Amino acid sequence: MSFVKYAKIAIASAIAAICLAANASAQTLLRDAEIEQFLDDYSRPVFKAAGLPADQIHILLIGDQSFNAFAGGLVMGVNTGLLTMSETPRQIQGVIAHEAGHIAGGHSARSDEAIASATRPMLLSLVLAAGAIAAGAPDAGVGILGLGQTIGIANALKYSRGQESSADQAALTYLNAIGRSGAGLVESFKNLSNEQIIHGRRINPYMQTHPLALQRVTALEERAKTSPFYDVEDSPEEIERLRLIQAKIKGFMQDANSTLREYPYSDQSEPAHYARAVAYYRSADLERALSEINRLLADHPDNPYYNELKGQMLFEFGRIDESIEPHRKSVELAPGKALLLINLARALSATEEPGKLQESVKDLKSALLLEPDNSFGWFELARAYGALGEEPLADLAMAESHYNSGSKQQAASFAMRARTKLQSGTPEWRQATDIIVASLGSDPAAGGKRDTRAPAPKPETERRPGEVPDPQ
Questions:
Q1: What is the pTM of this model?
Q2: Cβ distance 373 to 379 under 8 Å?
Q3: Which of 13, 393, 417, 457 is least buried, going by the fewest C-beta atoms within 10 A?
Q4: Residue 433: its pLDDT value, please?
Q5: Structural domain spans, the chain
Q6: Strand ranges across the sheet with 75-79
Q7: Is 243 exposed, middle or buried (0-12, 13-18, 19+ CB in 10 A)?
Q8: How many beta carbons lie within 10 A of that of residue 8, not counting itself?
């Protein structure tokens, strides 16, 4: 799944800053390969049923424990709270289908002002199971990309009741087309309506942007019950998968003591082991964390995300050599996931051994073919090249990192520095030139003028900013 490929998001407020995990009360943009795969599995069939380009819709995971979701353009945001507060996967899929109805209906087209203020997000490898990484300061531990106290696009996309009803009906159409029950969407809206009645003024964010009316929910339920799939339940395996994801999110998002109270040692279920593994890891109790994750791996050795978590635990606690094997196994078990490749590459680079540094470069190039906009992947590639003494390539990778995080002046500066050391006319030299022109709108070396000459045929290895050659 290309989660961040060329993502351009209508966010009314600019991205704030990189901050430490202590500031977890703010909404955050998170990355996690396991959760992203879950969302992809439940959204892709819906998008196809809606006639939407599934490969072009970017689902953002928002680190906020309130029940909320939003959609605009070809972007959908899902709060972690939607995942943890839902009782079944069909409730989550129902909300996804409703948001897909907004996208298919072009309901965000009226948000011209929000779209005009779109900003390229710093979509870094912020991996929940990987401890999350602060760009430019990997030793800082668990870092998160702060979006301030609000997600601007969510506030901008306040739909009318007519649009809401239209999205409701569209959602039921999509769910029926893929043989899924619309009961989940009805259940979610009923729960929100009850919450509004019970808590009065404490209105859920989702209800502020998606106004509910009793008659609307009633109409939704009446039509949903006409579907032959209305009584189709989620399988035990689907529900268990959701429980594991919920345990993981709570382990990372909640205070560790709260997690341990919710999942006491007397609970020997798989989700409980998962939650405790994360809680102990976050509490710097590595031995207990390893005990819990090893228990899971003994029963499920081929789970890539358990291997990923074990590798990250060992890496963050300085046991670099030991972390490589579980990271490598996670990549073998779940190939084609950029985040897992980047985790492995970080561990290989940290050994500072020439052979492993070369392997790190290869893995990072593979990751960047999957996610060309991943600025942290470019940053790690710059570190690996620097350790190998490849200074021009390190500068070029840093230019890409800055370009893809929106720091165009710095991108141009590194690209110009790289170009002075690269052989003229090579793919890397042209890549640096592309970054300069894309960042500044012109090439200072050409007298500050745009290059209006007809481009030469593009060699197979040449690439625009954000592209990398196939790994050797």
A1: 0.81
A2: no
A3: 457
A4: 97
A5: 17-224
A6: 17-20, 143-146, 28-30, 58-62, 75-79, 69-72
A7: middle
A8: 15
pLDDT in tens, 348-383: 999 999 999 999 999 999 999 999 999 999 999 999
Q: Which uninterrupted H or E stretch holds 64?
A: none
Number of H helices, E strands in the chain: 21, 6
pLDDT tens readout for residues 115-173: 333 333 333 333 343 343 333 333 333 333 333 333 444 454 556 667 788 888 999 99
Which tokens sit at 276? Answer: 């405790």
433/427 Cα distance (integer angstroms): 10
Task: For residues 151 and 153, give the distance between their C-alpha atoms in angstroms, rounded to a whole number.
Answer: 6
Q: Which residues pair with 31 in a beta bridge?
A: 127
Pairing type for strands 58-62 and 75-79 reads: parallel
Cα distance between residue 410 and residue 236, in whole Å: 51
For every residue of 208-256, DSSP letters joined together read HHS---HHHHHHHHHHHTTSTTTTPPPPHHHHHHHHHHHHHHHHHHS-H
Quick one: pLDDT at residue 417? 97
Q: Which residue has the tokens 């405790």?
A: 276
* Top-confidence residue, 109 or 58: 58
